[in-house]
Specification:
mainly beta, 25-stranded parallel sheet, 13-stranded parallel sheet
């Protein structure tokens, strides 16, 4: 009976073990799958990158960082946030800096993720990168948000860099909420494509949705932006995005494209019937913003925007709209001040438009705001051929413009010291607006009577042709009688009676009430508001002095060079077609081309401005209105230039004013890798100022020189040479190659003068000089291929690269690291086999013990 009871107990034990095994999922330890599990709600303390990464991966929702270790041991791989995660500074006494290695962001937030990064007012969390990494296209820090949400409080981005979004890159209806955030020295830069949004890049064009009124994709408050740079467009690049921005300070911003601070294009968002603006801006201070194209502060396309309490000073655009460029948009501005905004240095023959604003095909309202000293071009001179339009505001297209309580003081331009109205649906100025101390002049000298322009305050284009019909612009302009015009200066030399008679029908009642400056004018003139002291009209025949230069170029067999120039001036009136003068051609002795040991043959007119082509024999005199076939007049610095080449026996006419960048090698059998050389060309004019704006290459391609006069090229061994033509004489050039390990380059200036290293001093372009850039491969090494931009892209209109959202594990997939018992893999048949064998061994041992005891 005793042994029977023991046997039954053992059998019960074995059965219990089997049942436990089944209930536990036949489990055995799997320490390599998951080491720890934390409660999602409990706060987890971490001190290093590895601990932070593991905490996020384990599902932690509340994380406190207790150490500054990640400044000394940076984040090695971008941390993916795919659930709700809040990260804070564990101590008010801790200076917390999270550094990311080159090539990596700090965080990547998926569409299911939500990141809350929370510093304190005393101890902000700093996300830092390396904005000076050798590869400008690599990432270094910052956050990518692809459809999830991001909340930042008391956070600083320092020297983070990326192709798109120097600090933050967002897509797919991501929600961004930023409070007390600083952006310092962040960059969006690349030698090929991208380069948008030095602080934030948000492209919602592929997944936008029309949000409810008053809701926004992005909200920013109490934040600062300082010293950010973008290769192309904007510190903030918004595409099909709604935003609310309040209480911000922005300073020292530079872009080589459009929109120094904000580039906004909401072309795909529906504005019809929507009364809430897509972009709402309140109480923002901007200082020293620069754009190499249009819109020093704002470049806005197809957008509804409301601005209240903006103060901007020293905004500069090399194109149009020193502060604001608005096209096809609905813009409302109130309680704002624009100080010393400028529009300068655009490409020749285009001119400078809108010292503070250029408005195109838009509905534009401005209320209780002031523009001060808005200069269109501070360095323009009387000899410059380009007109300047609208010292304060330039209006064109089907624009509806309304101003109440607007003040423009100290504006300067050649046409319209304060405003230039090219065309508009309507222009309304009321609410005690004022135009004071504005000047229409060709060189901004108020003391020089002969340099006065038209429309000291407002220049109106009287007749506008639209779709083949001529419209009277004065009938579309309404200026209330309480508008003040004072101390505006322009040319008033015209016949008053003829002006009044000719334009009587153009004077609406609203304009007729304006009181012009009446000093020193006739009674008939006093009755007309169309006086160019205030509103333009000048019937007097104007006389313009122009210049013709005949340049003789010569080089004898001994390579002795000389250039001789004849300068002729002639006048053109506004009432007749331009007639060029007949000029005499000098002899060889008069030119002074008597080189020793040379046999002079003849002078020839240069054909197509190409010295390599056979020229056309000269005559004693030349009527410039009937040039021989193929002979052209070159436009250089406001003058027309005729080139004549001296030809000696057996000596060809040589190249002139050309910069060539090419890939060559001194090896007879070179084996070149397909390495891309990043080459920067700097251009200065004869006074040493950077040449900015558009530059045309020999193949017809137009490239952009930035505010420093720099043009960036990417050159491979298989590429055709890059040739910049028509560089004026006495301009200066410097060529710099971005360093690459294992490669050495040099260039030759003034063919035959010897090799020079890159990054030398500027070389002056002289007559008959050629600058060739040569790259010599010293070692063969495989370099990574640089991605090429879309063939259809051109600088300034580059389609931004939209990174694809990384693939994430299926949310419904079974996690092999979870089961009835943490740290075990369940439902494995091997477990059942092991337990059966163990149970059999126990039963066998028991039977053996029983028999042994019974035997004894």
């Amino acid at each position: 009976m005793k042994y029977s009871q023991k046997r039954k107990g053992v059998r019960l034990f074995v059965a219990t073990a089997l049942v436990f095994a089944f209930l536990s999922g036949f489990s055995y330890p799997q320490t390599n799958v998951r080491n720890t599990v934390v409660s999602a709600a409990a706060e987890v303390s971490v001190a290093s990158y590895e601990e932070l990464k593991n905490a996020v991966a384990s599902g932690a929702q509340n994380i406190a960082i207790t150490s500054n270790d990640m400044f000394y041991n940076p984040i090695q791989e971008t941390i993916t946030i795919d659930h709700d995660v809040s990260i804070r500074n564990a101590s008010d006494a801790l200076n917390l800096t999270l550094k990311a290695v080159p090539g990596k962001r700090h965080f990547y937030v998926t569409k299911n993720g939500s990141l809350h990064l929370l510093g304190t007012s005393d101890r902000t969390i700093v996300l830092t990168g390396d904005a000076n990494v050798a590869d400008p296209s690599s990432y270094s820090g910052g956050i990518n948000v692809s459809g999830g949400s991001l909340e930042l409080n008391n956070v600083t981005f320092n020297q983070t860099v990326a192709k798109l979004g120097g600090a933050i890159e967002a897509y797919d209806n991501a929600k961004l909420q930023l409070d007390t955030v600083s952006f310092r020295k962040t960059k969006a830069t690349t030698p090929t494509y991208g380069g948008h949004g030095s602080a934030i890049y948000y492209d919602n064009s592929k997944s936008y949705s029309d949000l409810a009124a008053g809701s926004y994709n992005i909200q920013i408050a109490n934040s600062t932006v300082d010293t950010t740079t973008a290769t192309f467009n904007g510190a903030f690049f918004f595409k099909d995005v709604t935003a609310r921005l309040e209480n911000m300070r922005v300073s020292n911003i530079a872009t080589s494209g459009n929109g120094g601070v904000f580039y906004i294009d909401n072309s795909d968002l529906n504005r019809s019937g929507v009364t809430t603006p897509q972009i709402r801006i309140k109480e923002i201070n901007i200082e020293n913003s620069n754009s190499s194209l249009s819109g020093g502060d704002f470049h806005v396309i197809n957008t509804s925007m409301d601005i209240d309490g903006l103060q901007t000073s020293d905004a500069h655009a090399s194109g149009s709209g020193g502060s604001i460029y608005a096209k096809l948009s609905d813009v409302s501005i109130s309680n704002s001040k624009f100080i010393d905004n400028k529009s300068t240095h655009l490409a020749p023959a285009i001119g400078f438009k809108g010292g503070a604003m250029m408005i195109v095909d838009s509905n534009f309202t401005i209320h209780d705001s002031k523009l001060e000293s808005a200069l269109t071009s501070g360095d323009i001179s009387a000899s410059t051929e380009n007109a300047t339009y609208g010292g304060g505001i330039y209006i064109t297209g089907n624009t509806v413009f309304k101003a109440t309580g607007l003040s423009i003081d100290g504006g300067q331009a050649e046409f319209g010291g304060a405003m230039y109205i090219d065309s508009a649906t309507s222009v309304t100025i009321d609410g005690s607006s004022s135009f004071t101390n504005n000047t229409a002049t060709t060189n901004y000298s108020k003391t020089s009577a002969e340099n006065k322009g038209d429309g000291g305050a407002i220049y109106v284009n009287p007749e506008v042709e639209i779709d083949g019909e001529v419209y009277n612009m004065y009938t579309r302009m309404h200026i209330a009688g309480d508008t003040t015009f004072a101390n505006n200066i322009a040319d008033i030399k015209f016949t008053p009676n003829n002006a009044i008679e000719k334009y009587r029908e153009y004077i609406p009642l609203e304009v007729a009430g304006v009181s012009p400056d009446q000093s020193g004018v006739t009674e008939a003139y006093q009755k007309s508001p169309l006086n160019s002291w205030d509103i333009n009209f000048d019937e007097e025949e104007t006389i313009t002095t122009k210049t013709i230069i005949v340049k003789y170029h010569g080089r004898n067999p001994a390579v002795l060079e000389a250039t001789k120039s004849q300068v002729f001036t002639y006048t053109v009136t506004n009432s007749e077609e331009e007639v060029l003068p007949t000029v005499p051609i000098l002899t060889i002795k008069e030119v002074g081309f008597e080189f020793p040991g040379s046999d002079f043959v003849k002078f020839v007119y240069r054909v197509d401005n190409d010295p390599s082509k056979p020229g056309v024999d000269v005559t004693k005199t030349l009527n410039l209105n009937t040039l021989p076939e193929g002979v052209i007049l070159q436009e250089i610095s406001g003058a027309k230039v005729l080139h004549i080449d001296a030809v000696w026996k057996d000596v060809p006419v040589v190249s002139n004013h050309t910069l060539t960048i090419a890939e060559v090698t001194d090896s007879s059998n070179p084996t070149l890798t397909d390495h891309s050389y990043n080459i920067q060309v700097y251009l200065k004019d004869e006074t040493g100022n950077p040449v900015t704006g558009y530059v045309t290459l020999a193949n017809g391609q137009v490239v952009i020189a930035d505010a420093n006069g720099m043009i960036t090229f990417t050159l491979k061994p298989s590429d055709e040479p890059i040739v910049i033509t028509s560089i004026p004489e006495n301009y200066q050039v410097k060529v710099v190659q971005v360093p690459s390990d294992g490669f050495k380059t040099s260039y030759t200036a003034d063919t035959g003068s010897g090799e020079h290293d890159y990054d030398t001093s500027f070389v002056t372009i002289t007559s008959d000089s050629v600058v060739e850039i040569m790259n010599t491969v010293e070692t063969n090494q495989v370099e990574p291929n640089v991605p090429n931009p879309d063939p259809g892209e051109t600088p300034g209109t580059v389609t931004p690269e939209v990174p694809q959202t990384p693939k994430t594990p299926d949310d419904d997939a079974v996690d092999p690291g979870t089961g009835p018992i943490t740290g075990f893999v369940h439902n494995d048949p091997m477990n059942l086999l092991i337990l059966i064998m163990v149970s059999a061994a126990i039963v066998g041992s028991y039977e053996l013990m029983k028999k042994t005891k019974h035997h004894k």
